[in-house]
Design brief:
flavoprotein, globular, 48% helix, 409 residues, four-stranded antiparallel β-sheet, Butyryl-CoA Dehydrogenase, subunit A, domain 3, 11 helices, three-stranded mixed β-sheet, fatty-acyl-CoA binding, AcylCoA_DH/ox_N_sf, 9 strands, Butyryl-CoA Dehydrogenase, subunit A, domain 2, alpha+beta, transit peptide
């Protein structure tokens, strides 16, 4: 597979304010920005500016207070970040690479804010766009793209995370064609502020998706509190007790796990980009700190061990970003395979969390405060590394592909 190429340059903020070239941006040693088109760079810079203006000045307060800033939801819609890779129905219709770049820049601000965009667009909106009726698409997608309607995606259960085939949530078809849902979901992003929930449930015909207005009697969403990760985000428990739905609530175009899995792959794709945003931000913060922190009469950057740490970080950021760009080009070409998404999700999350932890060590005791981002990023990445498939799950997916042997059971 040849790496597809495009065009020139950009600009950086936090804490380096220079154009991104191989000589002025230490995190882009290979000038990977040169692989991007002018349109892709412009989109990236718009999202970067949004992060600089709206997220960076506030994220420490949001994170410490466990606040999800609902006031920026419609701003994200106006910027074209919601369902941005989807075509029609009021959606932005941007490329996979553009969506990836947006995810990278958002997660350089905070994983929780990128997660909102992922849950809204890659999960809830994708499910409706892929498998909904025309009436469902026209009813929900335009408002979701604007941020006027918030969605959530209910797959994971208290006892079924990596094994969704064992889900206990059921949907029973009634004599008049209506449905009754019973069960529970856990770790469902946005559920307590969502207007519409995509709920996956076992039926006599297999697993089906249902559109459940969150004000339906019997639907209860409770935020999970006392989290050590994703504090500027919302994850919930959902209880479904005799939730009555009309016949037209079902997503008509899919039966079985291929439905939710195809949506998870959309989210996993964004994650491989986003993780590199958290890694890049941590690298930049550590570099800036080390350049200005004097120990034994010289800056930390003058010491060999500091330089080794920075070099190792930069190399992994370059490799992970290159992986993401190539994966995006394959996706835009329509040739991307699910196993290739597992490569990016596994590698980039694993390397990003190592980079963020290493960056924290360079900050000494100051690194455990919210004045600096690396430990916050590392804590968030504990969640990112877990959701949409753990390291172990993606390892087994890749192992099956390489060996031909199924090792899940």
């Amino acid at each position: 597979m040849a790496l597809l190429k495009a065009k020139p340059k950009p600009k950086e903020t936090h804490p380096m304010t220079a154009t991104t070239t191989a000589t002025t941006d230490p995190s882009d040693l290979l000038d990977l920005a040169g692989l991007l088109t002018d349109e892709e760079l412009a989109l990236r810079d718009r999202v970067r500016s949004f992060v600089d203006e709206r997220i960076r000045p506030n994220i420490a307060e949001w994170y410490e207070g466990a606040i999800f800033p609902t006031e920026i939801v419609r701003e994200m819609g106006e910027l074209g970040l919601l369902g941005m890779h989807l075509q029609g129905y009021g959606c932005p219709g941007r490329s996979a690479v553009e969506y990836g770049l947006a995810a990278l820049e958002l997660e350089a601000g905070d994983s929780g804010l990128r997660t909102f965009v992922s849950v809204q667009g890659s999960l809830a909106m994708s499910a409706i766009h892929k498998f909904g009726s025309e009436e469902q698409k026209n009813r929900y997608l335009p408002g979701m793209a604007k941020g006027e309607i918030i969605g959530c995606f209910g797959l994971t259960e208290p006892t079924a995370g990596s094994d969704p085939a064992s889900m206990a949530t059921t949907a029973t078809r009634n004599a008049d064609g209506s449905w009754t849902l019973n069960g529970a979901k856990r770790w469902i992003g946005l559920a307590s502020i969502a207007d519409i929930a995509v709920i996956w449930a076992a039926t006599d015909d297999g697993i089906r998706g249902f559109l459940v207005p969150t004000d339906t009697p019997g639907f209860t969403a409770t935020p999970i509190e006392q989290k050590l990760s994703m504090r500027a985000s919302i994850q919930c428990d959902i209880d479904l007790e005799n939730v009555e739905l009309p016949a037209e609530a079902v997503l008509p175009e899919v039966t079985g796990l291929k439905g939710p899995f195809s949506c998870l792959n959309e989210a996993r794709y964004g994650i491989m980009w986003g993780a590199m945003g958290a890694a890049r931000d941590s690298f930049e913060v550590a570099l800036d700190y080390a350049q200005n922190r004097l120990q034994f009469d010289k800056p930390l950057t003058a010491y060999q061990i500091t330089q080794e740490k920075l070099v190792n970080m930069a190399l992994e950021i370059q490799k992970g970003t290159l992986l993401a760009i190539q994966t995006g080009r394959l996706k835009d070409a329509g040739t991307l395979e699910p196993v290739q998404i597992s490569v990016g999700k596994l590698n980039n999350c694993r390397e990003a969390i190592a980079i963020c932890r290493e960056a924290r060590t360079m900050l000494g005791g100051n690194g455990i405060t919210l004045e600096y981002s690396p430990l916050r990023h590392a804590n968030n990445l504990e969640s990112v590394r877990t959701y949409e498939g753990t390291d172990e799950v993606h390892t087994l997916i890749l192992g099956r592909h390489i060996t031909g042997e199924q090792a899940f059971r």
